[in-house]
Amino acid sequence: MKIAVMQPEYPGSYKKTLEVMEQFKSAAAECPSETDLLVLPEYSNCPGMSDMDEMTSHCRKYNEEFLKSISDSASKNNVAIVVNMMVEKDCGFTNTTYMIDETGSIIADYDKTHLAFTEIDPMGLIAGKELLFVDFKGVKITFAICFELYFPEFFEALAVQSPDIILCPSYQRSENSKILLKQAIGRALDSEAFVIRSSYSMGEESKSGGTSYAVSPSGEIILNMKQKIGISVIEIDPHEKRMRPLAHGLGMMSSREIVEKFRISSIYRKNSSVKKPLSEFNYPRVCAHRGLSGLVPENTLPAFTAALAIGADEIEFDVRLTKDNKMIVCHDE
């Protein structure tokens, strides 16, 4: 599979924002022939913007035309495109990643589940609630957007579904570039998948951000764009997996098979490890509604810890936003 990764210059003005958006629209035409997939960075529809009022106005003005242009480019150039956008939905604005196939049809849309601090306040984005996996040409693809790479448990939840490729459109500008690579190596090794990131160059001398990359399931860095501007292309066997020694003299086993077969999740954190799809868990399960609400004031830390102490399988509670976008736990609207 031939995959193109685009890393533009981070825009320093609104004029540059519009210029970079135009670069995204024409990127598929610049990919080498027989490219299967083009990955664009996070917030491709509003790069470089920070004022929420200006961003919402901008997105309402340009989103429909921008997404149509990306879809038309995918169809015209016979290249599937992954594009991340700030999108207005009925629930509010979301961080949404679209996967558009080579016919120009949207075949997946993933709402980022782990929002970064500024996406919660002041942006007030609505977080997604579900993982997403899509089959593309017999390859299982999933998504981890920017900040989501910080969460090993999130990658465990992805890994248990055995993806071949984890795509990571990103906007990170402050994280150390070497740390970004080290983190990717660990995630690729543990998930037994290719981890592929597209981001923005922060300038030739910058030690942070940039670093659009591709890391193989063996932890090999097969692409590191550093702060280079442009499009880089890699060719991979997406079904490649790394075999590891089971024990000295006992042959080899895949990374994920070793993890699934030998981990003891009860030692690490009670009931936290997802070993199999939720549909395969034994039922019935005990859910503590607002914690141990029959004996302890509901929706309090004592209610939650009391529920864990008596062995509840899970806890349910409601998180709501106040008018000034503060997150609170409260049952009633």
Low-pLDDT segments:
none
Mean residue pLDDT: 92
Give the distance, in angstroms, between the N- and C-terminal Cα atoms: 48 Å
How many strand segments? 18
Structure description:
With 333 residues, the protein is α/β, with parallel strands linked by helices. The protein contains 8 helices and 18 strands. The chain has helices at 14-30, 52-77, 117-120, 152-159, 177-191, 255-262, 265-268, 301-309; strands at residues 2-7, 37-39, 80-89, 92-100, 106-111, 133-136, 139-143, 165-169, 194-198, 213-215, 221-224, 230-235, 243-245, 252-254, 287-289, 314-316, 319-321, 327-329. The strands form 5 sheets. The chain has a 6-stranded mixed beta sheet with strand order 5-4-3-2-1-12, with helices on one face. It has a 6-stranded mixed beta sheet with strand order 6-7-8-9-10-11, with helices on one face. The protein has a two-stranded antiparallel sheet with strand order 13-14. Strand 17 (319-321) and strand 18 form a beta hairpin. Helix 1 (14-30) runs parallel beside helix 2 (52-77). The radius of gyration is 21 Å and the shape is globular. The N and C termini lie far apart (48 Å). The mean pLDDT is 92.
Task: Give structural attributes.
333 residues; alpha/beta; six-stranded mixed beta sheet; globular
In short:
This protein is an alpha/beta fold and 333 residues long. It has eight helices and 18 strands.
List the helices and strands and how they pair.
Layout: E1 2-7, H1 14-30, E2 37-39, H2 52-77, E3 80-89, E4 92-100, E5 106-111, H3 117-120, E6 133-136, E7 139-143, H4 152-159, E8 165-169, H5 177-191, E9 194-198, E10 213-215, E11 221-224, E12 230-235, E13 243-245, E14 252-254, H6 255-262, H7 265-268, E15 287-289, H8 301-309, E16 314-316, E17 319-321, E18 327-329
Parallel strand pairs: 1-2, 2-3, 7-8, 8-9, 15-16
Antiparallel strand pairs: 1-12, 3-4, 4-5, 6-7, 9-10, 10-11, 13-14, 17-18
